[in-house]
Amino acid sequence: MRKDVRILLVGEPKVGKTSLIMSLVSEEFPDEVPLRAEEITIPADVTPERVPTHIVDYSEAEQSDEQLYQEISKANVICIVYSVNNKKSIEKVTSHWIPLINDRTDKDSRVPLILVGNKSDLVEHSSMETILPIMNQYQDIETCVECSAKNLKNISELFYYAQKAVLHPTGPLYCPEEKELKPSCIKALTRIFKISDLDNDGILNDSELNFFQRTCFNTPLAPQALEDVKNVVRRNMMDGVKDNGLTLKGFLFLHTLFIQRGRHETTWTVLRRFGYDDDLELTQEYLFPMIKIPPDCTTELNHNAYLFLQSVFDKHDKDRDCALSPEEVKDLFKVFPYMPWGPDVNNTVCTNEQGWLTYQGYLSQWTLTTYLDVQRSLEYLGYLGYSIIYEQESQAAAITVTRNKRIDLQKKQTQRSVFRCNVLGARGSGKSGFLQAFLGRNLQRQRRIREEHKSFYAISTTYVYGQEKYLLLHEVMPDFDFLTETDLSCDVVCLVYDINNPRSFEYCAKVYKQYFIDSKTPCVVIAAKSDLHEVRQHYSLSPHDFCRKHKLHPPQPFTCSTNEAPSKDIYTRLTTMAMYPHARLRCMCACNRCTYCLCQNLLKLELLRSIKAQLRTVVFNRCSHTRLWLPLVLFLLHVFTLC
Predict the structure, then answer these.
(1) How far apart are CA 111 and CA 95, in angstroms?
(2) How far apart are CA 629 and CA 563, in angstroms?
(3) CA-to-CA distance for 60 and 91, rounded, in angstroms?
Protein backbone atom coordinates (compact mmCIF):
# COMPACT_ATOMS: atom_id res chain seq x y z
CA MET A 1 0.00 0.00 0.00
CA ARG A 2 1.17 3.54 -0.76
CA LYS A 3 2.73 5.54 2.05
CA ASP A 4 0.89 8.73 1.06
CA VAL A 5 -1.71 10.02 -1.41
CA ARG A 6 -1.41 13.10 -3.62
CA ILE A 7 -4.73 14.53 -4.87
CA LEU A 8 -4.83 17.18 -7.61
CA LEU A 9 -7.93 19.30 -8.29
CA VAL A 10 -8.32 20.68 -11.83
CA GLY A 11 -11.19 22.26 -13.74
CA GLU A 12 -12.43 25.45 -15.33
CA PRO A 13 -12.14 28.77 -13.45
CA LYS A 14 -14.90 29.56 -10.95
CA VAL A 15 -16.15 25.95 -10.58
CA GLY A 16 -15.19 25.94 -6.86
CA LYS A 17 -11.92 23.96 -6.64
CA THR A 18 -10.40 26.23 -3.99
CA SER A 19 -13.69 26.46 -2.07
CA LEU A 20 -13.86 22.65 -1.80
CA ILE A 21 -10.39 22.51 -0.25
CA MET A 22 -11.02 25.36 2.18
CA SER A 23 -14.41 23.96 3.22
CA LEU A 24 -12.75 20.62 3.98
CA VAL A 25 -10.02 22.22 6.10
CA SER A 26 -12.10 24.78 8.02
CA GLU A 27 -15.37 22.81 7.96
CA GLU A 28 -17.19 25.98 6.87
CA PHE A 29 -17.62 27.88 3.65
CA PRO A 30 -15.02 30.70 3.38
CA ASP A 31 -16.16 34.32 3.18
CA GLU A 32 -13.24 35.17 0.91
CA VAL A 33 -11.82 32.68 -1.57
CA PRO A 34 -8.27 33.19 -2.89
CA LEU A 35 -7.33 32.46 -6.48
CA ARG A 36 -5.51 29.32 -5.37
CA ALA A 37 -5.18 27.38 -2.11
CA GLU A 38 -1.73 26.41 -0.91
CA GLU A 39 -0.90 22.71 -0.85
CA ILE A 40 -2.16 21.17 2.37
CA THR A 41 -1.28 17.87 4.06
CA ILE A 42 -3.84 15.96 6.07
CA PRO A 43 -2.15 13.79 8.76
CA ALA A 44 -2.66 10.04 8.66
CA ASP A 45 -4.47 9.87 12.00
CA VAL A 46 -7.40 11.98 10.76
CA THR A 47 -7.93 10.17 7.45
CA PRO A 48 -10.19 7.12 7.13
CA GLU A 49 -7.42 5.05 5.47
CA ARG A 50 -4.70 6.16 7.93
CA VAL A 51 -2.49 7.50 5.14
CA PRO A 52 -1.08 11.05 4.89
CA THR A 53 -2.89 12.93 2.12
CA HIS A 54 -1.61 15.91 0.13
CA ILE A 55 -4.24 18.08 -1.60
CA VAL A 56 -3.05 20.31 -4.45
CA ASP A 57 -5.07 23.09 -6.07
CA TYR A 58 -4.64 24.37 -9.65
CA SER A 59 -5.32 27.92 -10.78
CA GLU A 60 -5.16 28.90 -14.41
CA ALA A 61 -4.66 32.53 -13.37
CA GLU A 62 -1.62 31.83 -11.16
CA GLN A 63 0.05 28.82 -12.77
CA SER A 64 1.56 28.11 -16.16
CA ASP A 65 0.84 25.13 -18.36
CA GLU A 66 4.25 23.68 -17.50
CA GLN A 67 3.43 23.82 -13.78
CA LEU A 68 0.13 22.06 -14.48
CA TYR A 69 1.92 19.31 -16.39
CA GLN A 70 4.34 18.78 -13.51
CA GLU A 71 1.49 18.50 -11.02
CA ILE A 72 -0.33 15.99 -13.25
CA SER A 73 2.81 13.84 -13.41
CA LYS A 74 3.14 13.86 -9.58
CA ALA A 75 -0.54 13.23 -8.78
CA ASN A 76 -1.85 9.84 -7.61
CA VAL A 77 -5.45 10.79 -8.34
CA ILE A 78 -6.97 13.75 -10.20
CA CYS A 79 -10.35 15.28 -9.40
CA ILE A 80 -11.88 17.04 -12.41
CA VAL A 81 -14.24 19.62 -10.92
CA TYR A 82 -17.19 21.00 -12.87
CA SER A 83 -20.18 23.13 -11.89
CA VAL A 84 -23.51 21.30 -12.06
CA ASN A 85 -25.20 24.53 -13.20
CA ASN A 86 -22.65 25.24 -15.94
CA LYS A 87 -22.96 23.06 -19.06
CA LYS A 88 -19.77 24.49 -20.53
CA SER A 89 -17.71 23.25 -17.58
CA ILE A 90 -19.26 19.77 -18.05
CA GLU A 91 -18.39 19.77 -21.76
CA LYS A 92 -14.82 20.78 -20.94
CA VAL A 93 -14.42 17.54 -18.95
CA THR A 94 -14.33 15.48 -22.17
CA SER A 95 -13.18 18.11 -24.68
CA HIS A 96 -10.21 19.42 -22.69
CA TRP A 97 -9.35 17.91 -19.31
CA ILE A 98 -9.45 14.16 -19.92
CA PRO A 99 -7.48 14.40 -23.21
CA LEU A 100 -4.96 16.72 -21.55
CA ILE A 101 -4.43 14.35 -18.63
CA ASN A 102 -4.15 11.29 -20.90
CA ASP A 103 -1.54 13.06 -23.03
CA ARG A 104 0.54 13.80 -19.95
CA THR A 105 0.45 10.32 -18.38
CA ASP A 106 1.76 6.94 -19.52
CA LYS A 107 -0.80 4.66 -21.07
CA ASP A 108 0.22 1.79 -18.79
CA SER A 109 0.15 3.89 -15.62
CA ARG A 110 -2.83 6.18 -15.97
CA VAL A 111 -3.92 7.92 -12.79
CA PRO A 112 -7.50 7.35 -11.63
CA LEU A 113 -9.95 10.19 -12.27
CA ILE A 114 -12.87 11.37 -10.17
CA LEU A 115 -15.55 13.65 -11.58
CA VAL A 116 -16.69 16.21 -9.01
CA GLY A 117 -19.93 18.10 -9.59
CA ASN A 118 -19.79 21.14 -7.31
CA LYS A 119 -22.52 23.71 -6.44
CA SER A 120 -25.29 21.13 -6.12
CA ASP A 121 -27.00 23.61 -3.77
CA LEU A 122 -27.81 25.86 -6.75
CA VAL A 123 -29.88 23.32 -8.71
CA GLU A 124 -32.70 20.92 -7.95
CA HIS A 125 -31.77 18.36 -10.59
CA SER A 126 -28.80 15.98 -10.79
CA SER A 127 -26.11 16.05 -13.45
CA MET A 128 -25.71 12.26 -13.40
CA GLU A 129 -27.71 11.70 -16.59
CA THR A 130 -25.10 13.74 -18.44
CA ILE A 131 -22.14 12.28 -16.56
CA LEU A 132 -22.98 8.54 -16.79
CA PRO A 133 -22.24 8.29 -20.54
CA ILE A 134 -18.89 9.97 -19.88
CA MET A 135 -18.07 7.45 -17.13
CA ASN A 136 -18.95 4.57 -19.45
CA GLN A 137 -16.73 6.01 -22.17
CA TYR A 138 -13.59 6.45 -20.07
CA GLN A 139 -12.25 3.53 -17.99
CA ASP A 140 -9.97 5.78 -15.95
CA ILE A 141 -12.95 7.43 -14.23
CA GLU A 142 -13.41 5.75 -10.87
CA THR A 143 -16.58 7.50 -9.73
CA CYS A 144 -18.56 10.73 -9.77
CA VAL A 145 -19.47 12.74 -6.68
CA GLU A 146 -21.93 15.63 -6.53
CA CYS A 147 -21.22 18.00 -3.67
CA SER A 148 -21.55 21.52 -2.37
CA ALA A 149 -18.69 23.52 -0.90
CA LYS A 150 -21.21 25.99 0.51
CA ASN A 151 -23.40 23.44 2.32
CA LEU A 152 -20.45 21.11 3.08
CA LYS A 153 -22.38 18.34 1.33
CA ASN A 154 -20.24 15.27 0.43
CA ILE A 155 -16.99 17.19 0.96
CA SER A 156 -15.30 14.60 3.21
CA GLU A 157 -16.80 11.84 1.04
CA LEU A 158 -15.18 13.38 -2.04
CA PHE A 159 -11.68 13.18 -0.58
CA TYR A 160 -12.36 9.74 0.90
CA TYR A 161 -13.26 8.45 -2.58
CA ALA A 162 -10.12 10.08 -3.92
CA GLN A 163 -8.02 8.27 -1.32
CA LYS A 164 -9.84 5.07 -2.02
CA ALA A 165 -9.22 5.36 -5.77
CA VAL A 166 -5.47 5.37 -5.05
CA LEU A 167 -5.27 2.87 -2.21
CA HIS A 168 -7.92 0.47 -3.54
CA PRO A 169 -7.99 0.97 -7.31
CA THR A 170 -10.61 -0.84 -9.34
CA GLY A 171 -8.53 -0.93 -12.52
CA PRO A 172 -6.24 -3.88 -11.68
CA LEU A 173 -9.17 -5.95 -10.39
CA TYR A 174 -12.14 -5.54 -12.66
CA CYS A 175 -13.04 -4.98 -16.31
CA PRO A 176 -16.26 -2.90 -16.43
CA GLU A 177 -16.91 -3.65 -20.12
CA GLU A 178 -16.83 -7.41 -19.57
CA LYS A 179 -18.24 -7.08 -16.04
CA GLU A 180 -15.82 -9.66 -14.73
CA LEU A 181 -12.52 -9.95 -12.83
CA LYS A 182 -9.30 -9.44 -14.74
CA PRO A 183 -7.07 -12.50 -15.33
CA SER A 184 -4.34 -11.26 -12.97
CA CYS A 185 -6.91 -10.80 -10.22
CA ILE A 186 -8.35 -14.28 -10.83
CA LYS A 187 -4.84 -15.75 -10.66
CA ALA A 188 -4.10 -14.04 -7.33
CA LEU A 189 -7.46 -14.97 -5.77
CA THR A 190 -7.05 -18.58 -6.96
CA ARG A 191 -3.73 -18.82 -5.11
CA ILE A 192 -5.37 -17.37 -2.01
CA PHE A 193 -8.20 -19.92 -2.29
CA LYS A 194 -5.76 -22.84 -2.58
CA ILE A 195 -3.75 -21.67 0.44
CA SER A 196 -6.93 -21.26 2.49
CA ASP A 197 -8.23 -24.69 1.39
CA LEU A 198 -6.32 -26.44 4.15
CA ASP A 199 -7.49 -29.96 3.28
CA ASN A 200 -7.21 -29.47 -0.50
CA ASP A 201 -10.72 -30.79 -1.20
CA GLY A 202 -11.61 -27.91 -3.54
CA ILE A 203 -14.07 -26.19 -1.17
CA LEU A 204 -13.80 -23.84 1.80
CA ASN A 205 -15.78 -25.35 4.65
CA ASP A 206 -17.01 -23.31 7.61
CA SER A 207 -13.79 -23.82 9.55
CA GLU A 208 -11.65 -22.73 6.60
CA LEU A 209 -13.90 -19.76 5.87
CA ASN A 210 -13.61 -18.63 9.46
CA PHE A 211 -9.83 -19.04 9.35
CA PHE A 212 -9.74 -16.96 6.16
CA GLN A 213 -11.98 -14.30 7.69
CA ARG A 214 -9.92 -14.12 10.88
CA THR A 215 -6.66 -13.98 8.92
CA CYS A 216 -7.78 -11.10 6.69
CA PHE A 217 -10.15 -9.14 8.92
CA ASN A 218 -9.19 -10.21 12.47
CA THR A 219 -12.68 -11.45 13.27
CA PRO A 220 -14.58 -14.70 12.59
CA LEU A 221 -17.98 -14.88 10.96
CA ALA A 222 -21.04 -15.79 13.00
CA PRO A 223 -22.78 -19.04 11.88
CA GLN A 224 -25.72 -17.10 10.47
CA ALA A 225 -23.41 -14.76 8.57
CA LEU A 226 -21.69 -17.78 7.03
CA GLU A 227 -25.03 -19.14 5.87
CA ASP A 228 -26.04 -15.76 4.49
CA VAL A 229 -22.84 -15.59 2.41
CA LYS A 230 -23.41 -19.08 1.01
CA ASN A 231 -27.08 -18.32 0.28
CA VAL A 232 -26.09 -15.24 -1.75
CA VAL A 233 -23.78 -17.44 -3.83
CA ARG A 234 -26.42 -20.19 -4.19
CA ARG A 235 -28.96 -17.72 -5.54
CA ASN A 236 -26.59 -16.42 -8.21
CA MET A 237 -24.73 -19.49 -9.48
CA MET A 238 -25.29 -23.22 -9.63
CA ASP A 239 -21.84 -24.54 -8.66
CA GLY A 240 -20.75 -21.81 -6.23
CA VAL A 241 -21.53 -23.94 -3.19
CA LYS A 242 -20.77 -27.66 -2.90
CA ASP A 243 -21.17 -29.92 0.15
CA ASN A 244 -22.10 -26.79 2.11
CA GLY A 245 -18.72 -25.24 1.30
CA LEU A 246 -17.63 -22.44 -0.99
CA THR A 247 -16.05 -23.49 -4.30
CA LEU A 248 -13.44 -21.50 -6.18
CA LYS A 249 -16.16 -20.22 -8.53
CA GLY A 250 -18.21 -19.09 -5.55
CA PHE A 251 -15.16 -17.44 -3.97
CA LEU A 252 -14.45 -15.49 -7.18
CA PHE A 253 -18.13 -14.55 -7.53
CA LEU A 254 -18.17 -13.02 -4.04
CA HIS A 255 -15.22 -10.77 -4.88
CA THR A 256 -16.84 -9.78 -8.16
CA LEU A 257 -19.92 -8.82 -6.17
CA PHE A 258 -17.85 -6.78 -3.69
CA ILE A 259 -16.28 -4.79 -6.53
CA GLN A 260 -19.56 -4.25 -8.37
CA ARG A 261 -21.06 -2.86 -5.16
CA GLY A 262 -18.15 -0.45 -4.64
CA ARG A 263 -16.53 -2.47 -1.86
CA HIS A 264 -13.29 -3.16 -3.66
CA GLU A 265 -11.38 -2.30 -0.49
CA THR A 266 -12.54 -5.70 0.81
CA THR A 267 -10.80 -7.50 -2.05
CA TRP A 268 -7.71 -5.33 -1.65
CA THR A 269 -7.55 -6.13 2.06
CA VAL A 270 -7.46 -9.83 1.18
CA LEU A 271 -4.89 -9.38 -1.58
CA ARG A 272 -2.56 -7.30 0.55
CA ARG A 273 -2.82 -9.70 3.48
CA PHE A 274 -1.54 -12.41 1.15
CA GLY A 275 1.38 -10.28 -0.03
CA TYR A 276 0.18 -8.56 -3.22
CA ASP A 277 1.03 -5.03 -4.34
CA ASP A 278 -1.01 -2.60 -6.47
CA ASP A 279 0.06 -4.43 -9.64
CA LEU A 280 -1.11 -7.76 -8.21
CA GLU A 281 2.45 -9.00 -7.90
CA LEU A 282 3.81 -10.45 -4.67
CA THR A 283 5.96 -7.79 -3.02
CA GLN A 284 9.69 -8.18 -2.49
CA GLU A 285 9.17 -7.49 1.22
CA TYR A 286 6.75 -10.42 1.40
CA LEU A 287 8.83 -12.90 -0.60
CA PHE A 288 12.26 -11.90 0.72
CA PRO A 289 12.02 -10.74 4.34
CA MET A 290 15.20 -9.54 5.99
CA ILE A 291 17.28 -12.23 7.68
CA LYS A 292 20.80 -11.70 9.02
CA ILE A 293 23.28 -14.55 8.56
CA PRO A 294 26.68 -13.94 10.20
CA PRO A 295 29.79 -15.44 8.60
CA ASP A 296 30.48 -19.13 9.20
CA CYS A 297 26.86 -19.75 10.18
CA THR A 298 24.33 -21.93 8.36
CA THR A 299 20.57 -21.85 7.91
CA GLU A 300 18.10 -24.59 8.77
CA LEU A 301 14.34 -25.01 8.97
CA ASN A 302 12.96 -25.03 12.50
CA HIS A 303 10.37 -27.35 14.01
CA ASN A 304 7.36 -25.23 13.03
CA ALA A 305 8.59 -25.05 9.44
CA TYR A 306 8.81 -28.84 9.22
CA LEU A 307 5.31 -29.16 10.70
CA PHE A 308 4.02 -26.74 8.07
CA LEU A 309 5.77 -28.58 5.25
CA GLN A 310 4.41 -31.86 6.57
CA SER A 311 0.88 -30.44 6.42
CA VAL A 312 1.49 -29.28 2.84
CA PHE A 313 2.70 -32.78 1.91
CA ASP A 314 -0.29 -34.48 3.56
CA LYS A 315 -2.63 -32.02 1.88
CA HIS A 316 -1.42 -33.03 -1.61
CA ASP A 317 -0.71 -36.73 -1.04
CA LYS A 318 -4.23 -37.62 -2.11
CA ASP A 319 -3.69 -41.38 -2.46
CA ARG A 320 -1.97 -41.55 0.95
CA ASP A 321 1.01 -43.58 -0.33
CA CYS A 322 3.58 -41.34 1.43
CA ALA A 323 4.92 -40.21 -1.95
CA LEU A 324 4.09 -37.41 -4.36
CA SER A 325 3.37 -38.45 -7.93
CA PRO A 326 4.24 -36.00 -10.75
CA GLU A 327 0.57 -34.90 -10.82
CA GLU A 328 0.55 -34.33 -7.06
CA VAL A 329 3.80 -32.34 -7.25
CA LYS A 330 2.30 -30.21 -10.02
CA ASP A 331 -0.80 -29.60 -7.89
CA LEU A 332 1.36 -28.60 -4.91
CA PHE A 333 3.20 -25.98 -6.96
CA LYS A 334 0.10 -24.43 -8.52
CA VAL A 335 0.46 -21.56 -6.05
CA PHE A 336 3.91 -20.81 -7.56
CA PRO A 337 4.40 -18.65 -10.67
CA TYR A 338 6.84 -21.28 -11.98
CA MET A 339 7.88 -24.89 -11.29
CA PRO A 340 10.65 -24.58 -8.68
CA TRP A 341 11.94 -28.18 -8.81
CA GLY A 342 13.30 -29.74 -11.97
CA PRO A 343 13.79 -33.43 -12.83
CA ASP A 344 17.23 -33.41 -11.13
CA VAL A 345 15.44 -33.33 -7.76
CA ASN A 346 14.60 -37.02 -8.14
CA ASN A 347 18.36 -37.72 -8.25
CA THR A 348 19.07 -35.48 -5.26
CA VAL A 349 16.73 -37.03 -2.69
CA CYS A 350 15.10 -40.37 -1.94
CA THR A 351 12.33 -41.64 -4.21
CA ASN A 352 10.24 -44.79 -4.27
CA GLU A 353 10.54 -47.56 -6.86
CA GLN A 354 8.35 -45.55 -9.25
CA GLY A 355 10.68 -42.58 -9.00
CA TRP A 356 8.16 -40.53 -7.02
CA LEU A 357 9.19 -38.15 -4.27
CA THR A 358 8.91 -39.78 -0.84
CA TYR A 359 8.02 -37.89 2.30
CA GLN A 360 11.63 -38.11 3.45
CA GLY A 361 12.86 -36.97 0.05
CA TYR A 362 10.42 -34.05 0.04
CA LEU A 363 11.66 -32.77 3.42
CA SER A 364 15.26 -33.37 2.37
CA GLN A 365 14.85 -31.16 -0.69
CA TRP A 366 13.46 -28.35 1.46
CA THR A 367 16.37 -28.81 3.87
CA LEU A 368 18.85 -28.64 0.98
CA THR A 369 17.31 -25.46 -0.44
CA THR A 370 17.35 -23.77 2.97
CA TYR A 371 20.99 -24.71 3.55
CA LEU A 372 22.28 -23.67 0.11
CA ASP A 373 20.02 -20.70 -0.70
CA VAL A 374 17.94 -19.44 2.20
CA GLN A 375 16.49 -16.57 0.14
CA ARG A 376 15.06 -19.07 -2.32
CA SER A 377 13.59 -21.07 0.56
CA LEU A 378 11.97 -17.91 1.97
CA GLU A 379 10.49 -17.20 -1.46
CA TYR A 380 9.05 -20.71 -1.72
CA LEU A 381 7.56 -20.55 1.79
CA GLY A 382 6.04 -17.21 0.82
CA TYR A 383 4.28 -18.74 -2.18
CA LEU A 384 2.90 -21.47 0.10
CA GLY A 385 1.65 -18.88 2.61
CA TYR A 386 3.67 -19.97 5.64
CA SER A 387 3.46 -16.64 7.46
CA ILE A 388 -0.31 -16.53 6.91
CA ILE A 389 -1.11 -20.09 7.95
CA TYR A 390 1.13 -19.90 11.03
CA GLU A 391 0.24 -16.25 11.72
CA GLN A 392 3.86 -15.08 11.73
CA GLU A 393 5.20 -11.67 10.79
CA SER A 394 7.12 -13.25 7.88
CA GLN A 395 8.47 -16.61 6.76
CA ALA A 396 11.82 -15.65 8.29
CA ALA A 397 10.27 -17.09 11.47
CA ALA A 398 10.68 -20.53 9.85
CA ILE A 399 14.48 -20.24 9.70
CA THR A 400 17.07 -21.04 12.36
CA VAL A 401 20.49 -19.44 11.94
CA THR A 402 23.06 -21.69 13.57
CA ARG A 403 25.85 -20.34 15.69
CA ASN A 404 29.41 -19.91 14.44
CA LYS A 405 31.26 -23.22 13.96
CA ARG A 406 34.18 -21.92 16.02
CA ILE A 407 31.87 -21.77 19.03
CA ASP A 408 30.83 -25.38 18.38
CA LEU A 409 34.49 -26.38 18.44
CA GLN A 410 35.11 -24.47 21.65
CA LYS A 411 32.07 -25.90 23.42
CA LYS A 412 32.64 -29.36 21.89
CA GLN A 413 28.98 -29.70 20.93
CA THR A 414 26.60 -28.48 18.25
CA GLN A 415 22.87 -27.82 17.89
CA ARG A 416 23.02 -28.09 14.10
CA SER A 417 20.97 -30.68 12.24
CA VAL A 418 22.44 -30.37 8.74
CA PHE A 419 26.04 -31.28 7.94
CA ARG A 420 27.84 -30.85 4.65
CA CYS A 421 30.26 -33.36 3.20
CA ASN A 422 32.22 -32.36 0.10
CA VAL A 423 33.15 -35.33 -2.08
CA LEU A 424 36.36 -34.93 -4.09
CA GLY A 425 38.11 -37.27 -6.47
CA ALA A 426 39.45 -37.67 -9.97
CA ARG A 427 37.11 -38.15 -12.91
CA GLY A 428 35.60 -41.62 -12.99
CA SER A 429 36.59 -42.37 -9.42
CA GLY A 430 33.02 -43.15 -8.36
CA LYS A 431 31.88 -39.90 -6.73
CA SER A 432 28.47 -39.89 -8.41
CA GLY A 433 27.92 -43.51 -7.44
CA PHE A 434 28.84 -42.66 -3.85
CA LEU A 435 26.20 -39.90 -3.81
CA GLN A 436 23.48 -42.05 -5.34
CA ALA A 437 24.25 -44.96 -3.01
CA PHE A 438 23.42 -42.66 -0.10
CA LEU A 439 19.90 -42.44 -1.55
CA GLY A 440 19.62 -46.25 -1.52
CA ARG A 441 20.35 -46.78 -5.23
CA ASN A 442 22.61 -49.61 -6.33
CA LEU A 443 24.55 -49.56 -9.57
CA GLN A 444 21.68 -51.07 -11.53
CA ARG A 445 19.29 -48.25 -10.51
CA GLN A 446 21.95 -45.62 -11.09
CA ARG A 447 22.31 -46.65 -14.74
CA ARG A 448 18.74 -45.48 -15.37
CA ILE A 449 19.65 -41.87 -14.54
CA ARG A 450 19.84 -39.68 -17.62
CA GLU A 451 22.97 -37.56 -17.94
CA GLU A 452 21.01 -34.30 -18.32
CA HIS A 453 19.20 -35.02 -15.04
CA LYS A 454 22.37 -35.69 -13.07
CA SER A 455 22.64 -33.94 -9.70
CA PHE A 456 25.81 -32.88 -7.90
CA TYR A 457 24.03 -33.05 -4.55
CA ALA A 458 22.52 -35.84 -2.48
CA ILE A 459 20.82 -35.34 0.87
CA SER A 460 19.11 -37.72 3.27
CA THR A 461 18.91 -38.51 6.96
CA THR A 462 21.23 -40.56 9.14
CA TYR A 463 20.96 -41.47 12.80
CA VAL A 464 23.74 -40.79 15.28
CA TYR A 465 22.94 -42.30 18.66
CA GLY A 466 19.23 -42.00 17.99
CA GLN A 467 19.42 -38.40 16.79
CA GLU A 468 18.12 -37.78 13.26
CA LYS A 469 20.51 -35.59 11.26
CA TYR A 470 20.71 -34.53 7.63
CA LEU A 471 23.88 -35.29 5.69
CA LEU A 472 24.40 -33.26 2.54
CA LEU A 473 26.84 -34.70 0.01
CA HIS A 474 28.25 -32.35 -2.63
CA GLU A 475 30.23 -33.70 -5.55
CA VAL A 476 33.04 -31.24 -6.31
CA MET A 477 34.21 -31.05 -9.92
CA PRO A 478 37.81 -32.32 -10.20
CA ASP A 479 39.77 -29.15 -10.88
CA PHE A 480 42.82 -29.33 -8.66
CA ASP A 481 44.22 -25.96 -9.69
CA PHE A 482 41.07 -24.08 -8.75
CA LEU A 483 38.97 -25.06 -5.74
CA THR A 484 36.60 -22.31 -4.59
CA GLU A 485 35.82 -21.30 -1.04
CA THR A 486 32.55 -23.26 -1.35
CA ASP A 487 34.48 -26.37 -2.42
CA LEU A 488 36.57 -26.14 0.72
CA SER A 489 33.90 -25.02 3.20
CA CYS A 490 32.23 -28.07 4.73
CA ASP A 491 32.00 -30.18 7.89
CA VAL A 492 33.70 -33.31 6.59
CA VAL A 493 35.60 -34.25 3.42
CA CYS A 494 35.44 -37.46 1.39
CA LEU A 495 38.42 -38.23 -0.84
CA VAL A 496 37.28 -40.88 -3.32
CA TYR A 497 39.59 -42.99 -5.49
CA ASP A 498 39.01 -45.96 -7.79
CA ILE A 499 40.94 -49.02 -6.59
CA ASN A 500 40.93 -50.37 -10.16
CA ASN A 501 42.55 -47.23 -11.63
CA PRO A 502 46.29 -46.88 -10.82
CA ARG A 503 46.24 -43.07 -11.29
CA SER A 504 43.13 -42.36 -9.23
CA PHE A 505 44.61 -41.97 -5.74
CA GLU A 506 47.20 -39.37 -6.77
CA TYR A 507 44.50 -36.70 -7.11
CA CYS A 508 43.22 -37.39 -3.55
CA ALA A 509 46.72 -37.21 -2.09
CA LYS A 510 47.51 -33.90 -3.77
CA VAL A 511 44.18 -32.32 -2.77
CA TYR A 512 44.65 -33.40 0.84
CA LYS A 513 48.21 -32.06 1.06
CA GLN A 514 47.31 -28.81 -0.71
CA TYR A 515 44.10 -27.91 1.10
CA PHE A 516 43.28 -30.09 4.12
CA ILE A 517 46.47 -31.23 5.82
CA ASP A 518 46.44 -28.27 8.22
CA SER A 519 42.69 -27.67 8.35
CA LYS A 520 40.34 -28.65 11.17
CA THR A 521 38.00 -30.40 8.76
CA PRO A 522 37.83 -34.19 9.25
CA CYS A 523 38.80 -36.19 6.14
CA VAL A 524 37.94 -39.74 5.10
CA VAL A 525 39.44 -41.68 2.21
CA ILE A 526 36.97 -43.85 0.28
CA ALA A 527 38.27 -46.84 -1.73
CA ALA A 528 35.49 -46.97 -4.30
CA LYS A 529 34.56 -49.88 -6.59
CA SER A 530 35.86 -52.32 -3.99
CA ASP A 531 34.12 -55.18 -5.83
CA LEU A 532 36.76 -54.87 -8.58
CA HIS A 533 40.37 -56.00 -8.56
CA GLU A 534 42.63 -53.65 -6.58
CA VAL A 535 45.70 -52.44 -8.47
CA ARG A 536 48.84 -50.70 -7.26
CA GLN A 537 48.45 -46.92 -7.23
CA HIS A 538 51.08 -44.87 -9.11
CA TYR A 539 51.97 -42.75 -6.11
CA SER A 540 54.96 -42.71 -3.79
CA LEU A 541 52.85 -44.10 -0.93
CA SER A 542 50.07 -46.65 -1.00
CA PRO A 543 46.66 -45.38 0.16
CA HIS A 544 47.05 -47.29 3.46
CA ASP A 545 50.56 -45.91 4.08
CA PHE A 546 49.39 -42.40 3.16
CA CYS A 547 46.54 -42.58 5.69
CA ARG A 548 48.84 -44.01 8.35
CA LYS A 549 51.39 -41.25 7.79
CA HIS A 550 48.77 -38.50 8.08
CA LYS A 551 46.90 -40.24 10.93
CA LEU A 552 43.74 -40.70 8.90
CA HIS A 553 41.31 -43.55 9.13
CA PRO A 554 42.38 -46.37 6.76
CA PRO A 555 40.72 -46.23 3.32
CA GLN A 556 37.10 -47.33 3.59
CA PRO A 557 36.10 -49.95 1.01
CA PHE A 558 32.91 -49.03 -0.80
CA THR A 559 30.85 -50.41 -3.65
CA CYS A 560 27.37 -49.78 -4.98
CA SER A 561 27.48 -52.87 -7.22
CA THR A 562 25.17 -54.86 -4.95
CA ASN A 563 21.87 -56.65 -5.34
CA GLU A 564 20.29 -54.73 -2.50
CA ALA A 565 20.54 -51.09 -1.49
CA PRO A 566 24.14 -50.18 -0.53
CA SER A 567 25.11 -50.04 3.13
CA LYS A 568 24.74 -46.69 4.88
CA ASP A 569 27.33 -47.31 7.61
CA ILE A 570 29.92 -45.05 6.03
CA TYR A 571 27.42 -42.17 5.87
CA THR A 572 26.65 -42.56 9.57
CA ARG A 573 30.38 -42.36 10.26
CA LEU A 574 30.68 -39.22 8.17
CA THR A 575 27.80 -37.59 10.04
CA THR A 576 29.34 -38.54 13.40
CA MET A 577 32.65 -36.98 12.45
CA ALA A 578 30.89 -33.84 11.21
CA MET A 579 28.93 -33.55 14.46
CA TYR A 580 32.07 -33.84 16.60
CA PRO A 581 34.91 -32.18 14.66
CA HIS A 582 36.72 -31.44 17.95
CA ALA A 583 37.29 -35.20 18.29
CA ARG A 584 39.59 -35.05 15.28
CA LEU A 585 42.62 -35.36 17.55
CA ARG A 586 45.89 -36.85 16.42
CA CYS A 587 45.90 -40.14 18.32
CA MET A 588 49.38 -40.59 19.79
CA CYS A 589 48.88 -44.02 21.37
CA ALA A 590 50.54 -47.11 19.97
CA CYS A 591 47.39 -48.42 18.29
CA ASN A 592 46.91 -45.13 16.35
CA ARG A 593 43.14 -45.27 16.85
CA CYS A 594 41.04 -43.68 14.13
CA THR A 595 39.04 -40.46 14.20
CA TYR A 596 35.73 -42.32 14.07
CA CYS A 597 36.58 -44.38 17.17
CA LEU A 598 37.59 -41.21 18.97
CA CYS A 599 34.19 -39.75 18.07
CA GLN A 600 32.40 -42.87 19.32
CA ASN A 601 34.23 -42.80 22.66
CA LEU A 602 33.52 -39.09 23.00
CA LEU A 603 29.82 -39.67 22.37
CA LYS A 604 29.74 -42.45 24.96
CA LEU A 605 31.53 -40.25 27.47
CA GLU A 606 29.14 -37.33 26.91
CA LEU A 607 26.13 -39.63 27.21
CA LEU A 608 27.53 -41.08 30.42
CA ARG A 609 28.07 -37.60 31.86
CA SER A 610 24.48 -36.72 31.00
CA ILE A 611 23.12 -39.80 32.81
CA LYS A 612 25.30 -39.10 35.84
CA ALA A 613 24.00 -35.53 36.00
CA GLN A 614 20.41 -36.81 35.90
CA LEU A 615 21.20 -39.37 38.62
CA ARG A 616 22.50 -36.67 40.92
CA THR A 617 19.09 -35.02 40.64
CA VAL A 618 17.40 -38.34 41.41
CA VAL A 619 19.65 -39.06 44.42
CA PHE A 620 18.87 -35.74 46.07
CA ASN A 621 15.14 -36.18 45.48
CA ARG A 622 13.54 -37.25 48.78
CA CYS A 623 10.63 -39.01 47.14
CA SER A 624 10.19 -42.54 48.53
CA HIS A 625 9.63 -43.85 45.00
CA THR A 626 13.08 -42.62 44.07
CA ARG A 627 14.71 -44.58 46.94
CA LEU A 628 13.05 -47.74 45.66
CA TRP A 629 14.29 -47.21 42.09
CA LEU A 630 17.77 -45.97 42.96
CA PRO A 631 19.49 -49.41 43.27
CA LEU A 632 18.14 -50.43 39.85
CA VAL A 633 19.28 -47.18 38.24
CA LEU A 634 22.77 -47.54 39.73
CA PHE A 635 22.95 -51.08 38.42
CA LEU A 636 22.03 -49.93 34.90
CA LEU A 637 24.66 -47.22 35.13
CA HIS A 638 27.27 -49.83 36.07
CA VAL A 639 26.27 -51.96 33.08
CA PHE A 640 26.48 -48.96 30.74
CA THR A 641 29.97 -48.12 32.06
CA LEU A 642 31.14 -51.66 31.35
CA CYS A 643 29.83 -51.36 27.76
Answers:
(1) 18
(2) 49
(3) 18
